[in-house]
Amino acid sequence: MLDKPLMDIRSLLKEYAQQVEDLLAREMPPGSAPYISEGVWYQFSSGGKRIRPALCLLTCAQLGGDPKKALPFALAAEILHNFLLIHDDIEDGDTIRRDQKTLWAHLGVANAINVGDFLISSAYRILLGSPLEAKRLLQLVDIFSMTFQRTVEGQALDINLRGSETLTLEGYYRIVQLKTAYYLTFNLVGGAVVAGISSQVIDQLWELGRCLGPAFQIRDDTIDMTEGKGRGGEIGCDIREGKPSIFFAYALERIPRGDPRRRTLLEIIRKPRGETTPREVDTVIQLYRSIKAFEFAEEESKKLLQQAFDIIDRLPLESKGKELFRSIGQFMIERQS
């Protein structure tokens, strides 16, 4: 698999993702749990690319480990991802994801929560079935649980700082480190632990995630303002939800108090989602463009990517392995969805 051109990162991730897909079908076969299986497979059949678990397997292989032994952790990571998406959609009131109804909009809030509970319990069961010695398995469980906790802490900040005039760029990065960086990086770390890599390299991978995580989120924020995030072509969902995006944080730091533009921005961001008009969304996007917020976001991504490359250069990998991790970083900030 790794003899393929290293820049073809999408092809590599797709191959690893299929292994995760196959294990998912074996662990949670359709129709196995009344009133639950339908929701599980509705959620997993919505077009997710399985990027995170594929990164786990790819990392394990690149660091000299057996990716088959990392499969349970990789699948558990993907299950956690979908558990969090289900809850995120309920908390945000999102009815569309990946261009289809969200689970709660399809089956109702009660059933969606119950499916989420089933998923997270299944994630721990699958993880605990990993073919590893007890010490390494406990390390994986600790990494998984810590990431779960940190992500929830980040979501708490995200929810409670929506439309807040106190948001700063520092605060934005705090949210992103908790909500996105751990959540992305623990896949790399899990693969490295299975491969038996030293704690020093594990620390380097966490450091790498502190760069790639924010770069990934900035790209996500940008996609929402331009192409839309698979929500029926809707642009500016973050504006409608009042989310603390990099654009909102930058605007609050860039536009002084008393400026009418700041007042307009806050009035629109704070409106209930259903009351925000397309024209108001466009007003905010044009405001962001006028203060060069998109250029700022792009420059921030480039700086974070360069920092990530510097860390990759220090990883104990041959040149082909380092090139592959650079390709992953580039993929994170150039993806279209």
Describe the protein:
This protein is mostly helical. The protein has one domain: Farnesyl Diphosphate Synthase (Orthogonal Bundle), CATH 1.10.600.10. It is 73% helix and 1% strand. The protein has helices at residues 9-27, 37-44, 51-62, 67-92, 103-107, 109-128, 134-160, 169-194, 199-226, 237-241, 246-254, 260-269, 278-290, 293-314, 319-334; strands spanning 96-97, 100-101. The chain has a two-stranded antiparallel sheet with strand order 1-2. Helix 1 crosses helix 4 (67-92), helix 3 (51-62) crosses helix 8 (169-194) and helix 8 crosses helix 9. The longest helix is centred in the middle third of the chain and has 28 residues, at 199-226. The protein is globular. The relative contact order is 0.11.
Mean of residue pLDDT?
A: 92
Low-confidence stretches: 1-7
How does the major sheet shape up? 2 strands, antiparallel
Strand order, sheet with most strands: 1-2
Instruction: Name the CATH architecture.
Output: Orthogonal Bundle
**C-alpha end-to-end distance:** 25 Å
- What is the string of helix and strand elements? HHHHEEHHHHHHHHHHH
Assess the beta-strand content as a share of residues: under 5%
CATH fold annotation: Farnesyl Diphosphate Synthase
Kindly name the structural category: mainly alpha
* Broad CATH class: Mainly Alpha
Number of domains: 1
Helix percentage range: over 70%
Strand runs, count:
2
Global Rg: 20 Å
